[in-house]
Amino acid sequence: MLDQQLTPRRIALPLLASFHILIIASSNYLVQIPFQLFSVTITWGTFTFPLVYLATDMTVRLYGAHLARRIVAVVMAPALLLSYGVSVLFKDGSYMGMASLLVFNGVVARIAFASFSAYVIGQLTDVLVFNRLRRSPHWWLAPAASSIFGNLIDSISFFSIAFYRSTDAFMAEHWLSIGIADYGYKVLVCVVLILPAYGVLLNLLTRHLTHRNP
């Protein structure tokens, strides 16, 4: 089998889980740094978080859906703690000091829980869709469809849980429109950047395995 020619599962699991945690931590910081793109305000986290979908799709393709789901299970608790910790330590991209961790922040806790929920639901959706389409003769179909549906569920989960009837009046009023814009840019990033990267990686791995096993 293909996965027998790759890194053993017992090694792949911690490596891939660590990559997920790294992307989640960096995205929770970068999501606090907004900028304007075509008159729409987005954050740098829009560009980093889709890398998780790239990692998940490659995992399903090479190792199967079971390992991909195990990675989500392993990452769940660290993702929740990291989402809260990073959001408390860094406000609007500025370091607030370790003392900020000593005071519980209910607003941040809600956002962290939203991030945690969106990650779990979005990733499991991604695995389900990709696994159903992985045997398609068109290499791009599975990663494209799984990213579109996974990011949709991710965005709906995050913005509704984090900001529906929030104490933040602006976000409580505009969470839906901001969420739609965020989803649109995530899909754009996936199509323009992540999907080509997936194709390149898949091609490189296929060539590598072909040369190893002529």
On the 0 to 100 scale, the average pLDDT is 84
Q: Quote the CATH topology.
A: Arp2/3 complex 21 kDa subunit ARPC3
Span between termini? 15 Å
- How many strand units? 4
Main sheet properties: 2 strands, antiparallel
The tally of domains stands at 1
Rg over CA atoms: 18 Å
SSE run: HEEHHHEEHHH
Text of the CATH class? Mainly Alpha
- Structural category is mainly alpha
- State which percent range the strand residues make up: 5-15%
The proportion of residues forming helix, as a percent range, comes to: over 70%
What CATH architecture label applies?
Orthogonal Bundle
What does this structure look like?
This protein has about 210 residues and is mostly helical. It has a single domain, classed as Arp2/3 complex 21 kDa subunit ARPC3. About 75% of the residues lie in helices and about 5% in strands. It contains 7 helices and 4 strands. The chain has helices spanning about 10-30, 45-50, 50-65, 65-90, 105-135, 140-165, 170-210, and strands at about 35, 40-45, 90, 95. The strands form 2 sheets. A two-stranded antiparallel ribbon has the order 1-2. Strands 3-4 form a two-stranded antiparallel ribbon. α6 runs antiparallel to α7 (about 170-210). The two termini are about 15 Å apart. The mean pLDDT is about 85.
